[in-house]
Design a protein that fits this description.
The complex is a heterodimer.
Chain A (H helix, E strand, L loop, with lengths): L1 E10 L2 E11 L4 E5 L6 H8 L7 E6 L2 E2 L5 H6 L1 E5 L10 H5 L1 H5 L4 H14 L4 H4 L9 H13 L5 E5 L7 H18 L2 E6 L2 H7 L2 E6 L2 E6 L1 H6 L4 H6 L5 H8 L2 H4 L1 E2 L10 E3 L4 H11 L3 E5 L5 E6 L1 H4 L4
Parallel strand pairs in A: 3-8, 3-9, 6-7, 7-8, 12-13
Antiparallel strand pairs in A: 1-2, 1-4, 4-5, 9-10, 11-14, 13-14
Chain B lengths: L1 H5 L1 H16 L4 H7 L13 H30 L8 H11 L4 H12 L3 H25 L3 H9 L4 H31 L12 H10 L2 H25 L1
Classes of the chains: A alpha/beta, B mainly alpha.
């Protein structure tokens, strides 16, 4: 668990971060979101002491971070950044294994760990282990970056706009991947982005920052439903936010039970799909009812158009 | 076998160099044809092999010192503690390059007297510049994101330098060393004018006595030495 208590950072007379307090419970994913220069990256980098905080207290599992040697601290915290920062002269396997090597694991143990992480991130060992970073696509390089961050099995993962430089399709794929991995490994993650859609999709807890201060923090649903001010409302998309909220709701939570006499509609969605997708299908096919299928393809419910305007959320 | 093939060109040049140094006197008929009016057409005072060895030694000693100082200075001023000196060092490196080597020699003699020491000092000063300049360029070109992530995942400053910065900058640094050493192989010949024994001896003696044969013998050996070393560098760098 990470606690920031009234933390500030000044560069000269300018306050980049101004008295922020924040708790990130163990195993949760906290997204810091805001425009450029709002202090979100500075906040992230204070946690692993790439930047030293000027005031206040940062604790990890109850211990002030200044009690740790900074190099030791960083080896316990995974770190992934936008342009991956992979070492260009090292193979993929060597890049992933760098922190275990720093921690003096034995060779067999490192190789085993690297291979299991490559499997976790969907990188075939035979194909990628000996490649160099310049031979990878942006998405593959970022997977390697995330694998490297996870290599020594740290409890905490800091991610600074890790998917920021990727095309929308690759980014969306990696977001889904991160959620899948997080559901298995349950790390304490602090994730920085300027993309509110990304924040809404990934976060357990969203922290909106502006001018070095926290404007609002809460769950994605809370932020959408009750934006603290005009700025947050703009970030969540103003009048577009109905669709954003729909994208956070699963079809399975809104469907009605199927009745025996019913003839199920031809167009169907999966119960894990978002309501946003359901709306899109209705608009596209010009229908007011969809069948809902489970993972096996069996129809398990019906989603009628009127459910959308009944008490959503 | 792959290794042998890779190093074949510099080895062939080295062989050519050694054979020439040993058997140049056998070409006496050729040099007599070149200088028909002279009694002595093969440089007599030292053996070519002895001159070659001393020449190479002077360049090697100067090169080693220049590499240590040059790479050291570039590493120093790219650390946080040394960054104040970065503009000074990079300007010195550019200005120094405009000094002719003869001028450096002329300045070294009053300080160190005649002999190999003064030549080595002059060669170090002159050879430092390409090394500093290239090392600086190489180290400064290392991607910021790479450095940031090296720190962020917990490499110590020393590990960052040795595992990341130097290997990434290595091609640029090697390029500077190659230029420096190759230039100094030629420049070392001027050392003969201040009392060091180098392959410049036959050249200077040939110029002074108007004997083209001596000059040609020194020049051919210096050329072969430069080609051998350059060819060796092109295989490692």
């Amino acid at each position: 668990m990470i606690e920031l208590d009234n933390v500030s950072k000044s560069f000269g007379s300018e306050k980049a971060v101004d008295g922020i307090s924040l708790d990130v419970p163990a195993g949760s994913l906290c997204v810091l979101v805001g425009t450029s220069g709002c202090g979100k990256s500075t906040t992230l980098r204070m946690i692993n002491r790439l930047i030293e905080h000027s005031d206040g207290m940062i604790r990890i599992d109850g211990h002030p971070i200044r009690d740790f040697n900074e190099v030791t601290l960083r080896r316990r915290i995974g770190y992934a950044i936008q342009n991956t920062g992979l070492f260009p002269h090292w193979s993929v396997a060597r890049n992933i294994g760098v922190v275990p090597r720093l921690l003096k694991w034995d060779k067999a143990q490192i190789r085993e760990r690297v291979e299991s992480l490559m499997a976790l991130l969907g990188l075939a060992v035979e194909e990628f282990a000996d490649k160099y970073p310049h031979q990878l696509s942006g998405g593959q390089a970022q997977r390697v970056g995330v694998a490297r961050a996870l290599a020594a099995d740290p409890d905490i993962l800091l991610m600074d706009e890790p998917f920021g430089a990727l095309d929308p399709i690759t980014r969306s794929g990696l977001q889904a991947e991160l959620l899948r991995i997080q559901s298995r490994i349950r790390k304490t993650i602090v994730f920085v982005t300027h993309d509110m859609d990304e924040a809404l999709r990934l976060a357990d807890q969203i922290v909106v920052m502006q001018g070095g201060r926290i404007i609002q923090q809460g769950t994605p649903t809370q932020i959408l439903a009750h934006p603290a001010d005009g700025f947050v409302e703009t970030l969540v998309g103003g009048r577009d936010r109905g669709l954003k909220r729909a994208s956070l709701t699963a079809v399975g939570d809104m469907m009605e039970p199927i009745e025996q006499a019913d003839d199920p509609p031809a167009i169907s969605v999966a119960r894990t799909d978002s309501m946003r997708l359901a709306v899109s299908l209705m608009l596209w096919h010009g229908v007011s009812r969809l069948s809902v299928r489970d993972d096996n393809g069996d129809t398990v419910g019906i989603l009628p158009l009127r459910r959308l305007v009944d008490d959503v959320g | 076998m792959g290794g042998l093939r890779r190093y074949a060109p510099p080895l062939v040049w080295l062989l050519a160099l050694l054979l020439t140094a040993l058997y140049l006197p056998r070409l006496e008929p050729f040099f007599t044809w070149l200088e028909p009016d002279r009694q002595t057409v093969i440089y007599p005072r030292q053996s070519f092999l002895a001159l070659l060895i001393e020449h190479a030694l002077i360049v090697a000693v100067a090169g080693t010192i220049a590499i240590a100082l040059g790479v050291g200075a570039a590493v120093g001023v790219t650390r946080r503690a040394g960054e104040e000196f970065l503009p000074l060092v990079s300007q010195l490196a550019s200005i120094g390059q405009t000094f002719p080597p003869v001028a450096v020699l002329a300045l070294a003699v009053p300080a160190l007297g005649y002999g190999a020491e003064a030549v080595i000092v002059a060669l170090v000063l002159y050879g430092l510049l390409p090394i500093v300049r290239n090392s600086l360029a190489g180290l400064q070109a290392v991607d910021r994101g790479v450095l940031e992530s090296a720190r962020g995942i917990g490499l110590s400053p020393w590990q960052t330098l040795v595992w990341v910065e130097l290997p990434i900058a290595a091609p640029a640094i090697m390029g500077g060393i190659r230029t420096s050493v190759t230039i100094n192989i030629a420049t070392a010949a001027i050392g003969s004018t201040i009392g060091a024994n180098t392959l410049g001896n036959p050249i200077i003696s040939g110029i002074v006595n108007g004997n083209i044969a001596f000059t040609l013998q020194g020049a051919v050996l210096i050329g072969l030495l430069a080609i051998t070393v350059d060819s060796a560098f092109s295989r490692i760098a």
